[in-house]
UniProtKB/TrEMBL annotation:
InterPro entries to which the protein is assigned, alphabetical: Beta-barrel_TonB, Beta-barrel_TonB_sf, CarboxyPept-like_regulatory, Plug_dom, Plug_dom_sf, TonB-dep_rcpt-like
Localization: Cell outer membrane
Key words of the record: Cell outer membrane, Membrane, Receptor, TonB box, Transmembrane, Transmembrane beta strand, Transport
Source organism, top-level taxon: Bacteria
Membrane topology value: Multi-pass membrane protein
TonB-dependent receptor plug domain mapped to chain residues: 124-226
GO cellular component terms attached to this protein's record: cell outer membrane
UniProt name for this protein: Iron complex outermembrane receptor protein
Gene3D superfamilies (UniProt xref): Carboxypeptidase-like, regulatory domain, TonB-dependent receptor, beta-barrel domain, TonB-dependent receptor, plug domain
Length: 770
């Protein structure tokens, strides 16, 4: 009887438990984030398996995952991603707020002939980031760096004619924008408005724009933003890849070729190399009604790298050479005051020289050498030591229209040597924390080469900058919080002879900078990030001591030795929506700058034997920049899609309650694309019609040499198609820029006083991948 009763009670208890379990609502969830142990990048496509519930999830593009409908209890998780060590974890799930970050460690092995290995040096930031790669970068081949980046909302150009342009991010350019060429800060004579970056865009496999103040990470010259020009990673095994590019343009009869080859060693695992070379030639640019005299260019560039990578050690050497000759519009150099007034009133050159490839004075001849060596060593699976050294030699010669033998001598001949050193320690702990601690140094020596027969525009100088920084990041599920602190100290020594009198100056600058930022994935489709950062920039030597004719700019520039350092506080917010058919991105920012330095037209002119030139002076005032960028796309059908992007910026002199010169006007670019075949087809076969709308700049300074030009609308068309030739690929691009041959002037072009911008241009672009 007792046995029967015990069995009965046991059965009742089991049934009751079963019914209770059946009736229990299992609404708990396991959330987490999967990151690379190597560089703290999110991992998309990692597989997470919950053993007890026989359910799983796959991490998204931000590394986040969620496994839903779980009851309270203990669970065993298995996390796997190809080429990385498996993670197994046991967790106790008692509430719905479980959230954990996992970091997968890379392992090197061969699987079916495919080797999974590599080390990526990533830049982690919570501020707004946009990249140009793939088909978008392919469409930009053959263009300068500045022109290529105009495809990104919030980025415009500050140009001198049609062949010299430099990128502008949220109204900032030149020494406020840092460009990293394969990890090395590009150091040339970037202070001049007509000094284009000495870099060949063909070296890039991806070009990334960081729109926030990044002085903590990179130093004072990054107060306006950062541009990363990254080549493709070096191969680690034998896998030859060759790319050939050809670009031809009707306007200027331009031709541009580039070839690159990369391969790895079959005998030494982890050893690889890459070489690349390009050449470019163009003649006089044509506006809709006339040719622009002496606006041709020529370029010859080369780069090469070799590297070795193992489980713990990585080392790479890199060298690049950039050489260009640029013609300067002859009509920008006028003979007397009347000629200057007349050409500004006329709005275009009085002569039409026709087409020629010849480049005569005035012109620029610029060469730039860059060499670097970098290495990293994994002290453990959590700590990595990084070292990087770079050397750069930059020579800039500017030739003016002069008489006799002087016409063969440069009027400006500058030689700049730069040494940079970076030493930093990365950590990625098993928990949610990661970060970096480091020191970087930059040493420069800039010299005027004797024999120009002209008093140097800027003095010789030596500069030394030391920076110490720490950055820490907390990542847990959909939330990332990041903060950093930096201290810089800079010394500058200058010297030059003026009327046989030696003038010297010893200057020193010190400053702290800091930032805090956050990223939050509101839902699988919506993300938000915010970054608040202080930044600073000491005045450059040209802003302090310019005194004379700047030949390439056809202007007299006057510096101010009493200028203070710029200090800013910038707040950047970005909201992004990815709904499959609909993609939207909105960036809003506000930037308060104390002692903002700007080049202002005085209204005066300078008359010399070489001509008559406008006079500009460097001034300083408190400034407030604010605005927003937007971009979006929508898929209407399987074949038809559209996009729109644009930017609005306001920049006000809060001291004088007026506006600064050379601030981009409002603009929007929109277009429609038709895919011949399904959009899901991996082979491109697409036609695009686009329209660029640019408003008139109505917020002008109190004085300018001429009123701001009218707004304009440009239509462009393009066609892209990919052919498969056996194992190889041929990409064909046909483009027509300024389809209607519209006459227009861009406010951000310093030669708008003298000429229109470029007219219609037919382009053919070929890329053959072996």
């Amino acid at each position: 009887m007792k046995y029967i009763n015990l069995s009965t009670y046991t059965l009742i208890f089991i049934l009751f438990g079963a019914f209770s379990a059946f009736g229990q609502k299992c609404e708990l969830a396991i959330r987490g984030k999967i990151l690379h142990q190597e560089n703290n990048d999110p991992i998309e496509g990692a597989y997470i398996w919950v053993v007890e519930s026989a359910t799983g999830a796959v991490s998204d593009a931000n590394g986040n995952f969620i496994v839903k409908e779980l009851c309270q209890g203990n669970y065993n998780l298995t996390i796997q991603y190809l080429g990385h060590k498996e993670i197994r974890d046991t967790i106790s799930l008692t509430s719905n707020n479980f959230n954990k970050t996992y970091r997968l460690e890379e392992e090197s092995f061969e699987l079916g002939g495919v080797e999974i290995h590599g080390h990526k040096l990533a830049v982690q930031t919570t501020t707004a980031v946009t990249a140009l790669y793939g088909d978008d970068l392919l469409q930009a081949r053959g263009e300068s760096l500045g022109e290529s980046l105009k495809r990104i909302s919030g980025v415009t150009t500050f140009s001198t004619g049609n062949s010299i342009s430099k990128p502008v991010i949220h109204g900032m350019h030149s020494n406020r924008i840092m460009i990293l060429n394969n990890g090395i800060r590009l150091e040339g004579q970037q202070w001049g408005a007509e000094h284009a970056p000495e870099i060949d865009p063909f070296v890039a496999d991806e070009i990334t724009v960081i729109k926030g103040a990044e002085t903590v990470r990179f130093g004072p010259e990054a107060m306006g933003g950062v541009i990363l020009v990254n080549p493709a990673p070096l191969p680690t095994k034998k896998d030859p890849k060759t790319n050939f590019y050809f670009t031809g343009g009707s306007n200027g009869r331009m031709g541009n070729i580039s070839i690159s080859h990369a391969n790895g060693s079959d005998k030494i695992k982890g050893l690889g190399y890459q070489v690349q070379a390009s050449a470019k030639r163009a003649g006089n640019i044509q506006s809709p009604d006339y040719y622009q005299g002496n606006t041709g260019l020529s370029e010859l560039n080369f780069s090469g790298s070799v590297g070795y990578s193992s489980q713990k050690l990585g080392i790479e050497g890199y060298y690049s050479y950039f050489n260009t000759t640029l013609g300067i519009l002859r009509d920008s150099h006028t003979g007397n005051l009347d000629d200057l007034i007349n050409i500004i009133e006329n709005g275009r050159p009085f002569s039409d020289p026709g087409f020629t490839y010849d480049i005569i004075n005035p012109k620029q001849v610029v060469s730039h050498h860059l060499a670097k060596i970098k290495s990293h060593y994994h002290l453990s699976d959590k700590w990595k030591l990084n070292f990087q050294y770079g050397f750069q030699a930059n020579n800039r010669q500017e030739f003016d229209k002069r008489r006799g033998d002087l016409n063969t001598k440069p009027s400006l001949d500058l030689e700049l040597f730069t040494n940079t050193l970076d030493l930093f320690l990365d950590h990625s702990l098993k928990n949610e924390w990661s970060g970096s601690f480091g020191i970087n140094a930059i040493q420069q020596a800039n010299s005027n080469i004797p024999g120009t027969g002209v008093t140097p525009l800027i003095p010789n100088y030596d500069m030394l900058n030391l920076g110490f920084y720490a950055i820490e990041k907390y990542s847990k599920g959909p939330l990332e919080i990041e903060g950093g602190l930096r201290f810089d100290t800079r010394t500058v020594q200058t010297a030059r002879f003026v009327d046989s009198e030696l003038q010297q100056a010893d200057l020193s600058y010190n400053n702290f900078s800091a930032f805090i930022g956050g990223f939050y994935q509101i839902s699988p489709k919506v993300t938000f990030n915010s970054n608040l950062g202080t930044a600073w920039r000491p005045p450059n030597v040209n802003e302090l001591f310019s005194e004379g004719l700047h030949h390439g700019a056809a202007a007299v520039e006057i510096g101010d030795a009493d200028l203070n350092s710029e200090k800013s506080l910038k707040w950047v917010n970005e909201l992004e929506y990815d709904g499959g058919r609909t993609q939207l991105q909105l960036t809003a920012y506000a930037n308060h700058i104390s002692d903002y330095i700007y080049l202002n037209p005085t209204g005066d002119t300078y008359v010399s034997l070489r001509g008559t030139f406008n006079v500009y002076e460097y001034l300083q005032a408190n400034a407030f920049f604010y605005g927003f960028d937007f971009s979006g796309s929508y898929v209407f059908t399987e074949r038809l899609s559209g996009y729109a992007k644009g930017s609005i910026i306001r920049a006000k002199n809060t001291d004088a309650d007026n506006y600064f010169p050379f601030i981009p006007s409002d603009r929007m670019d929109w277009g429609l694309s038709y895919q011949f075949g399904s959009l899901s087809n991996s082979k491109t076969n697409k036609f695009t019609l686009s329209n660029m709308l640019v408003a008139k700049q109505k917020r002008e300074p109190d004085f300018d040499l001429a009123p701001a030009p009218d707004g304009y609308a440009l239509f462009n068309i393009s066609y892209q198609k990919q052919f498969e030739l056996g194992k190889n690929k041929l990409n064909l691009g046909l483009q027509v820029q300024n389809l209607l041959n519209t006459s227009y002037k861009e406010y951000m072009n310093r030669f708008r006083y003298f000429t229109d911008d470029m007219g219609r241009n037919f382009l053919i672009k070929l890329n053959y991948q072996l």
